[in-house]
């Protein structure tokens, strides 16, 4: 089967890309997966570096596009964290197709995007955090709300400074109102759709929880309903779909068949 590469623009300042095999897009690694080994030269030339073999407690790999504003912003934030954790064996590397080092972090060249393909990168920027055994702890698509804080919380969790429960509490964004909240909610919804397409349902639900906490949209509820139906939770899935239809009655013709035969699903008048 011949592979072909796609790269298309997406909303909210990310570039979506992936390796297409037939009709499916390769998904990013799941938490607990081992990072595939690789070596690559610095973007500005020099001897190849093999990040996974270097001594570390935490390893961050950020897949970037040099001329993309969101990638540059993410790299700047990671550069600040690199300085803060320089003495804690926390390693930072950017992975780029070409260009020059950005954000103060060392950047390695991935000229044919084969490294990105092996990790299953589908959006730029994407930042992944691995433990001392090179197993994935978490992945951060794009540069979402409180990106720097969330990456730092993941680093502190990996270093054993905070628990998973404390990390979740710290990650919860403060309530926002107005157009800014709606814009950010739509960004989370956009990433949730990507996760849904990759069949990463738990991550999609987390992103939807954040989206709905900022702004209740029909799209978020309808997608949440689809996920719950796929997981076999028909009652909750149909309830989410009902709430989505209440917010956007125009969506009813395309969604109603999914729950028409569910007695717990009452249609709005």
Layout of SSEs?
Blueprint: E1 4-9, E2 15-21, E3 24-25, E4 58-64, H1 69-84, E5 90-96, E6 107-109, H2 114-119, E7 123-124, E8 126-130, E9 136-141, H3 147-158, H4 164-171, H5 178-197, H6 201-214, H7 218-230, H8 234-247, H9 252-255
Parallel strand pairs: 4-5, 5-6
Antiparallel strand pairs: 1-2, 2-3, 2-7, 4-8, 8-9
List the defining traits of the structure above.
9 helices; alpha+beta; disordered N terminus; 4-stranded antiparallel beta sheet; 40% helix; Serine Threonine Protein Phosphatase 5, Tetratricopeptide repeat; Glutaredoxin; 5-stranded mixed beta sheet; 269 residues
Offer a concise description of the structure.
This protein is of the alpha+beta class. The chain has helices at residues 69-84, 114-119, 147-158, 164-171, 178-197, 201-214, 218-230, 234-247, 252-255; strands at 4-9, 15-21, 24-25, 58-64, 90-96, 107-109, 123-124, 126-130, 136-141.
Report on this model:
The chain has 269 residues and is an alpha+beta fold. It folds into 2 domains: 4-171, Glutaredoxin; 178-258, Alpha Horseshoe (Serine Threonine Protein Phosphatase 5, Tetratricopeptide repeat), CATH 1.25.40.10. It has helices spanning 69-84, 114-119, 147-158, 164-171, 178-197, 201-214, 218-230, 234-247, 252-255, and strands at 4-9, 15-21, 24-25, 58-64, 90-96, 107-109, 123-124, 126-130, 136-141. The strands form 2 sheets. It has a 5-stranded mixed β-sheet with strand order 6-5-4-8-9, with helices on one face. Strands 1, 2, 3 and 7 form a 4-stranded antiparallel β-sheet that branches. Strand 1 (4-9) and strand 2 form a beta hairpin. Helix 5 (178-197) packs antiparallel against helix 6 (201-214). The radius of gyration is 20 Å and the shape is elongated. The relative contact order is 0.11.
